[in-house]
Amino acid sequence: MKGLRYGEWDEYPVDPLIKIAGELLKPYPEKANNLIDQAIRVAKEKIEINEYEMRAGVLAEIAVELARIDPEKALAVVKEIEEIERELDEEEDGIYSVVPDKARALGEISVELAKKNPKKALAVANKIEDYAIKANALARISLELAKISPKKASDRFNQAIKTAEKIGNYEKRAYVLSEISVELARIDPEKALSLAKKVEDYAIKANALAKIAVELAKTNPKKAKEVITQAADAANNIISDEEKAQALAEIAVKMAIIDTMNLLEKVPEKVFFMIVEDGWDAKRIREFLKNYENSGS
Length: 297
Description:
15 helices
């Protein structure tokens, strides 16, 4: 069988096989597992033996998709990537690396495992060699931990932050820290705000603060308005006019969302679902409330 090279791989996509397997898993588990095995076999057998990066990349895609339906089997696919890693260790030139592919797969697997087995999820996350992916995975696992142990969740968020701080690239580090702050806002808004404010890149900081403001609007509308104002202040410090305009536009959208959420608190329950389903904006809700109050309903 002739092996495939990069340009030819599109003729043998494996993602659809995994997605179909996901749909079949509950009603037809045997057929689903056959499709999964077929995808792995195609990745292993139809790629040139010396196409290390391609084999690892395709296996990583399979593992990522598979993580959502069978995390344990996805871990078995990662072992195939590790086998490629061992092959590469024997290469003298050291041109290739499968670390990014393995890290991406382990990140998704750890997050899915956290829903049922947080302890194992953490063990998998701690094997990730890429600081950005590891930090992101730890933050997402922390949200699952928060359901059973706020203390453990806080500890893991701290680990995620420390991991992110090791990222060498300034912009990437700022971005990952901002992502962690947004996740953290769901369980500890004050700590999330403190973290977001430390981000030095104004565009990234503005985006994080705006997202945190939306999260805060669910429980503390007054604080949410303060934070969205802080987001706008950060955006106004952006040097690039184009980036500044884009950031302010995105913040305006978040302001509208917060405004709408505040207004919805006043909407009678009997019409709430009608408003949500029809996608009313803040202006239309205001008009409705004004008419509703004037009618004395």
